[in-house]
Amino acid sequence: MNANLLSFEHAAFGYTRSKPIFTDLNYQLRRGTLTVILGPNGIGKTTLLYLALGWLQPSVGQVLLENRPLQDYSRAEIGRRVSLVPKLKAQPTSIPLWGKVFSGGGRTLRRLARRGKKTNKPRARRLPGLAFRNWLALM
């Protein structure tokens, strides 16, 4: 059994023909590995995830899921194998995600949250270096 979970074979994509985002992209995501996609804003990280989900189609080349072309799968089959946790457009106003993750007890939440001056209700506070991003999960 080939261990390639997701493959891009000579894939190219651009929202316009004059400005390609990817050209001749070749990459194999192997089963049991962790891959991190880093880059500056606007470089195409989210576009790459959308190609992996089949939401966008490469103009050249193909995307393979378990060595089978992605377009051969039904939406339900892709949904059972691949999921996306999207980034949040706005930060929550009650208990933020990091508060839920790190809420080992009431002391932790009290230490991380600060109270509003007028209402005395907890207000969300950002932790330095913690950002909400897209996550792609392959089953």
Which structural traits does this protein have?
single chain, 139 residues, alpha+beta, four-stranded antiparallel β-sheet, 4 helices
Describe this structure as you would to a colleague:
The protein is an alpha+beta fold. β1 and β2 (22-30) form a beta hairpin. The relative contact order is 0.17. The strands form three sheets. A four-stranded antiparallel beta sheet has the order 2-1-3-4, with no helix packed on it. The protein has a two-stranded antiparallel sheet with strand order 5-8. It is built from four helices and eight strands; from the N terminus they run ββαββαβααβββ. The protein has two domains: 4-82, Rossmann fold (3-Layer(aba) Sandwich); 86-139, no CATH class. Residues 105-110 and 122-133 have low confidence and may be disordered.
Strand order of the largest sheet: 2-1-3-4
Total beta-strand segments: 8
Query: What value does the Rg take, in angstroms?
Result: 20 Å
Question: What is the string of helix and strand elements?
Answer: EEHEEHEHHEEE
CATH topology of the largest domain: Rossmann fold
Helix content: 10-25%
Domain module tally:
2
